[in-house]
Every structure is written in C-alpha cells, then in structure tokens.
Design a protein that fits this description.
The protein is of the alpha/beta class. It is built from 13 helices and 20 strands. Strand 3 and strand 4 form a beta hairpin. It binds guanosine-5'-diphosphate, 6-O-phosphoryl inosine monophosphate and magnesium ion.
C-alpha cells in the first residue's frame, strides 16, 4: 500500500488528525484535497496540544511535504494565522514545507458576510455552518466567479476579478442592508497576500506526479467526514465539498489509481456539530457524559458536539461510498466503564426495516434505530500496547462492529497521544514502529 487515503466515515471529528500525524513518518508527502478552515484537527504530542485547520496534519514531522490541493478553499488570513502559530511553536511552516495549489479558490471578504445572511434567512432550517465563508466560496467556484490562488500572480487579473465580483454582489448586499463592498480596499488587502502567498504556490498535480515518479509515498488527507460530503452526505446538512474518496482525485489532480488503499477513521460512538438529523443522538445525561469524557467541543467553533451511540448503518454506508479497506477505530477509551454499550444495527422507517442508510434528511429524521446491547468493558484502554492486552469484551465488541460495517479494524486508538494506539494484524501494522513512538514520547 504505497499511497494511502485517510478520511472520516461519520460527521467529522473522528480523530483524523491524530491518525494522520501518527502515520506520517511512513510517507514523504501528506496531501489534503478539500475543505478549508472549517476543519479542526487536534493533535497531541508529548502533552502539547496543536490544532490544525487548513494545513495538513503531517506538518509536525520535519521533512514531510504538506500539500494543499485545488479542492480546498483558502482564507489567506487563516492560512497565515496558522503558519504563524506553528512557527511560534517551533514548527517550520515555510514554503519549503507547504505547497499550495494555484487552482485552490480563495475565501474573499464577501463570503463570510453572505453566509451569515443566508444562515439567518434559513431560520429554523439553518445548516449550522462554521460561518467561515466555506459554502459561499464553493458557490462562487461553481458559478465560475471565484478568485483562485493563482490569480494572485497577476495583479491586473486580481483587480478585475474583484471588480467583477463586487459588481455582481453589490445589489444583493444592498438588498440585505450589508455594508457596501469596497473593491479597492479588498484589492489592496489581497495584493498584500499575493506577495506572502506567492512562494507557496505550485502546480500541485505536477508536483505530486513528480514526487510519485521518484518513489515518494503520499498520504491523501480528507477533512470533514463522509456524511458531510456534498453529494453523499445528509444534504443539505453537509459541507460544500467532496470529502469522500472521489474528492481526492479531483481535489489534487491525480488519477484514481494513485490511491492504493483507503483507511476510514471511525469513532466508537457518533458525534455531529451543527444541524441535521442524527438517529442515534443521545440528548440526555448519557450523551452529555460521553461529550465531557470525550472532550467533544469543536476545535474550530468551540460548539458542544452532539453525541450518540455508534451507528453501524451509517458507517457501513460510508465504507461503501468510499471503498474503505480498513478502519481505524478511535476513542473507545471514552466508553470504558459505561456498562453495556448499545450499537445501532438497523433502521425502521414507517414500520419497515430499511436496507441501507437513507441520506435524505426528511427520511433520516423519522427512522427508528434498532439497537443491540454489547457488553462493555470496565477497564481503561490507555495502557494497552498490543491486541493481546486489550480486554476481551472490548475485542469482542470490535469483532461485532467489523461484522456490522463489513470492514475490518486495523488500528485502535485508545487516547490522544501517538503512542496510545494498537495495531491489529494488517498491512498497515508495518507502517509505524509503535515501540519507537512510545520511547520518543517518554524522552
Ligand atoms: P478530526 O477533525 O477528525 O481530526 O478530529 P478532532 O481533532 O476534531 O476531534 C477528535 C478529538 O479526539 C481530538 O480532541 C483528539 O485529540 C481526540 N482523540 C483522537 N483520538 C482519540 C482517542 O483514541 N481517544 C481519546 N480519548 N481522544 C482521542
Ligand atoms: P473536521 O475536519 C465536524 C459541519 C458544520 C456544519 C456543516 C457545514 O474537523 O472533521 P461549513 O462551515 O463546512 O459550511 O458547515 O458541516 N462541519 C464539520 N463538522 N467537523 C468538521 O471538520 C466540520 N467541518 C464542517 O458544523 O454542520
Ligand atoms: Mg475536527
């Protein structure tokens, strides 16, 4: 498995950042293919917490090239806040470490402004977005109005595109009583970014091709999760990009055969931030207990994440649409000591069993989940180093999940740190020497 695609199989926040950071030493390149600074990936290294939004979670390993594909939307301000934060923590975030696609679209000042209006206008039906301007930036991309990172290379092109956008948006802004857009001020701001962003800009498709031809291995990194995918998620309660496996090829300009395996990151329970149906949601004390034990607060917006039981119907669907080969199961440690653990094995809709996951929210909101109670494990999982040191009831629970989602678990994450990980037997086991990782952690 030379190149590996890592993505989320639920509604985001599955722990992709931890697993990408853990696996990065086995790859020369980590390439992100969609989303923007709506993402929040928390990585812990020896008790130090680092939160990444736009920059791939491979950045903490010197020598790894981090690539930001054309499938992303980039706020230059957010990008440079993140590089500055990383540099302040001693992490090199220079153009030698990060390549940004010239085809990536820029988030412009009008995007977060119009997003607030559209969320307010939806009222009860709002999406609960991160209000970072992500959706409107992708809207402009599809409307063929977008400003791309590569446009910063020619200031006359940039000036004209900003003028065209301001002219197009002005009537709408006026109608909603928003402040008038000042094309000249916006141009000056982005001309300033042009100078700073210029050294990062590359033809990412060509760069990846060259790297792969020379034998470098690539870890493709997804943000969000399969159920937030624009096409395959619970539309309209989704993000505006292709977070599923297909997005990796279009979001980076690589052929589908460059992806040799897909690792689905799956939380041992379910969380969701923002609005939209959530069949296994626990809007009760148990949900709040899981939330506080799992520290389920958004890394980007600080919002409390909605929590619920593991939903095998949803994860089986995500494994199908992404062609997931193996699962990395995260955060089962949070469930330790909770007693028996219900797992959703099926849905009934209007009294009848459903064959598969309905992505339509108007169906999903009315499904009745069917649960199977699995024996829990009272023991802490944190210190387990090998599958043999995991409690038997927990391993039995993993086997049941594997059957339900029709995909094998290759990695179990038992805590936030790199070393808090157990590899089951699979080809992924050879990627990381956990004994070395643990030894480094105790230095
Ligand atoms: P991402 O968006 O998929 O990268 O996930 P987030 O970083 O937003 O959320 C996952 C949270 O769970 C982070 O705070 C991680 O530090 C934490 N985490 C990851 N894996 C584990 C685990 O196995 N156990 C526990 N207790 N926490 C974990
Ligand atoms: P990571 O990469 C969880 C959710 C928002 C909202 C919907 C649309 O950390 O897993 P947007 O601002 O993208 O238009 O919001 O998508 N959302 C996420 N939820 N984790 C994320 O990223 C998310 N990125 C967006 O809460 O419901
Ligand atoms: Mg997150």
């Amino acid at each position: 498995m030379a190149n590996l695609l890592v993505l989320g199989t639920q509604w985001g926040d599955e722990g992709k950042g931890k697993i990408v950071d853990l696996l990065t030493p086995a790859f020369e390149v980590v390439a992100r293919y969609q989303g923007g600074h709506n993402a929040g990936h928390t990585v812990w290294v020896r008790g130090r917490k680092i939160v990444l939004h736009l920059i791939p979670s491979g950045i903490l390993h010197p020598g790894t090239l981090c690539v930001i594909g054309n499938g992303l939307v980039i706020s230059p301000a957010a990008f440079f806040t993140e590089t500055a934060d990383l540099e302040a923590q001693g992490v090199d975030a220079s153009p030698g470490r990060i390549a940004v696609s010239r085809g990536a679209h820029l988030i412009m000042p009008w995007h977060p402004l119009s997003e607030r209006v559209s969320e307010d206008r939806r009222g009860e039906k709002k999406i609960g977005t991160t209000c970072r301007g992500i959706g409107p930036a992708y809207e402009d991309k599809a409307a063929r109005l977008g400003v791309r990172a590569g446009d910063l290379a020619d200031l006359s092109v940039l000036r004209e595109k900003i003028a065209d956008n301001v002219a197009a948006k002005d009537p709408v802004f006026r109608a909603f009583g928003l402040p008038a857009l000042d094309a000249e001020a916006i141009f000056r701001e982005y001309a300033g970014w042009a100078e700073k962003l210029g050294p990062y800009l590359r033809d990412v498709s060509e760069l990846l091709d060259e790297r792969m031809k020379r034998g470098d291995r690539v870890l493709f990194e997804g943000a969000q999760g399969a159920l937030l995918d624009l096409d395959h998620g619970t539309y309209p309660f989704v993000t505006s990009s292709s977070s599923t496996a297909g997005g990796a090829a279009t979001g980076l300009g690589v052929g589908p055969r460059t992806i040799h395996g897909v690792l689905g990151i799956t939380k041992a329970y379910t969380t969701r931030v923002g609005c939209g149906p959530f069949p296994t949601e626990l809007d009760n004390e148990t949900g709040r207990t899981i939330g506080s034990r799992g520290d389920e607060f958004g890394a980007t917006t600080g919002r409390a994440r909605r929590c619920g039981w593991f939903d095998a119907v949803a994860v089986r669907y995500a494994c199908r649409v992404n062609g997931v080969d193996r699962i990395a199961l995260t955060k089962p440690d949070v469930l330790a000591g909770l007693g028996d653990i219900p797992v959703c094995t099926g849905y009934r809709y209007k009294g009848r069993p459903l064959k598969s996951f309905p992505a339509e929210p108007w169906i999903l909101k009315d499904v009745v989940p069917e649960y199977r109670k699995l024996p829990g494990w009272p023991e802490s999982l944190h210190r387990a180093a090998e599958p043999a040191s995991l409690p038997k009831t927990f391993v039995d629970y993993v086997r049941v999940l594997e059957d339900l989602v029709e995909t094998k678990v290759a990695i179990v994450s038992t805590g936030v740190e790199r070393g808090e990980t157990v590899f089951f037997e699979s080809e992924l086991r050879g990627l990381v020497d956990l004994a070395k990782v643990r030894a480094a952690a105790s230095v």
